[in-house]
Amino acid sequence: MSLFSKIEESIERGFRKWTERMFGPADSGELLLVHRAILESIESRVQTVARGKRVFPYGHVTVTLVSADPDRRALYQTAFGEGGRLESDVQEALDSAECEAPRGFGVEVKTSETGEKNFTIEYSVEALQRATEAVRGVGRLIVVTGKTAQSEYTLEKALTNLGRMAELTDTEHRVVRRNDVVFEEGGDERNATVSRRHAHIRLDSGVYRICDDGSEFGTRVLRDGRAIEVPAGNRRGERLRAGDEIFLGRACLRFER
Fold this sequence. Notes:
A 6-stranded antiparallel beta sheet has the order 8-7-19-18-15-16, with no helix packed on it. It has a 5-stranded mixed beta sheet with strand order 12-9-13-14-17. The protein has a 3-stranded mixed beta sheet with strand order 1-2-4. It has helices at 5-23, 25-43, 70-81, 85-96, 132-136; strands spanning 47-48, 54-55, 60-66, 99-100, 106-112, 119-124, 139-145, 152-155, 159-163, 167-169, 175-178, 181-182, 199-204, 207-212, 219-223, 226-230, 238-239, 245-248, 251-256. It has 5 helices and 19 strands. Helix content is 26%, strand content 33%. The chain has 2 domains: 5-129, hypothetical protein PF0899 fold; 134-256, Tumour Suppressor Smad4, CATH 2.60.200.20.
């Protein structure tokens, strides 16, 4: 049974929907076959070590898509490389299979005019070192619904707290948490569905992940028309992709970078 079976169908639905909208049904069908083959190839490199723990030992994966047609190469680059889409799908599949990847894991997408196969994959043990600001850009949160002091927030810190109230104190009035994105108490009916200690976004090796801090009304990510629940208290959280809409209860933020 495939390690990725639990999430692969969901990933494929999102990929198909996006490529059909971007390129049309004919190209979408071909791209989906390539996408599936890449995931299957990467899955074959997952290793099981002591006590059944799964690991992906490669820190950097380079996928090279081959076509003599420059328009087709441009299509491949847009479908798989733009916005780190393939990397996000691979990471999501690994996370679903409870498979650990090295710190700084990355997937690089290239194209080539010549090659014996329609794509090749190179695996490297060393993680790809990237300057986050230079290569990917700093993440941003844009407020869609709900009332906050700003309409947009830059995610430059290693940890960004999201919640209702600027500061949380204990019984002795000591500050135990400061929220960076604050949905004002009583500012909007949607704000009431945001917990005081709702969620946080973690920046690690250029990757942004959102984690729910045990909120009352939950956290979910809407991506390509698919809702992804963020489990409460799960330290791994959900990796964010540009364009994701983050719902904190009924309040909504859009992640961009």
